[in-house]
C-alpha cells in the first residue's frame, strides 16, 4: 500500500477530538471519509476500519506494507507493550500473526460464538426488568468475561472477579490520559 486511505487533516485537532469523544469522532470520520480512513495523530497516521474485510486486508497485507509511514509508537508502547502485534513490523509481525491465527479459524470460532452467547445470556439475567442500565457496562462485562475465558483460560468463576478487578484497575489508570507530543 503506497497510499493511506483518506482522513481528516490537522493531527493536533484530530487527536484532541479523538480523546474528547472517540465514539463520535470515529462515526463522523467514517461518514465523511468512508471505511477505512486514516486518523492522523500526534504520533503519526493510524488506519482505522470497522469492517471485517478491512481488518482481513490489514492483517493479511505483506509485513512491510505499513512500515514506511511515520507512526511513532512511543506512547502506544506504554499502553500495549513493545512486543504488541500492533507495533511489530516485518518478518517478526508476520511470525507472531501466524502464531495467533489458528485460534481464530473454523471450529474454534464456533466455540467462541457459543461462549459469547452463553456469557451474554448470563449478563442479561442480571438485569432487573424496568431498571435503567448503561449498555456500555453490559457490553464491557460480556467482552471481559469472554476474554478471560477464551484468551486467558480462566475457567473458575470464583477467580473471575480477581482478574476483572485487575483489568479494571489498568483500564481506569489510563482512561482519559492524553499522550504528550513526542518530538
Explain how this protein is built.
The chain has helices at residues 11-20, 22-33, 52-60, 74-80, 90-100, 106-125, 135-151, 160-174, and strands spanning 37-41, 44-48. With 183 residues, the protein is mainly alpha-helical. It folds into two domains: 11-73, no CATH class; 103-174, no CATH class. A hairpin with a 2-residue loop joins strand 1 and strand 2 (44-48). Helix 1 crosses helix 2 (22-33) and helix 6 (106-125) crosses helix 7 (135-151). The longest helix is centred in the middle third of the chain and has 20 residues, at 106-125. The radius of gyration is 19 Å and the shape is globular. Residues 176-183 have low confidence and may be disordered.
Secondary structure class reads mainly alpha
Describe the strand arrangement of the main beta sheet, using strand numbers. Answer: 1-2
- Describe the sheet with the most strands: 2 strands, antiparallel
Q: Averaged pLDDT, please?
A: 78
H and E string: HHEEHHHHHH
Low-confidence stretches: 176-183
Morphology call: globular
Rg over alpha carbons: 19 Å
Total discrete domains: 2
Walk me through the topology.
Layout: H1 11-20, H2 22-33, E1 37-41, E2 44-48, H3 52-60, H4 74-80, H5 90-100, H6 106-125, H7 135-151, H8 160-174
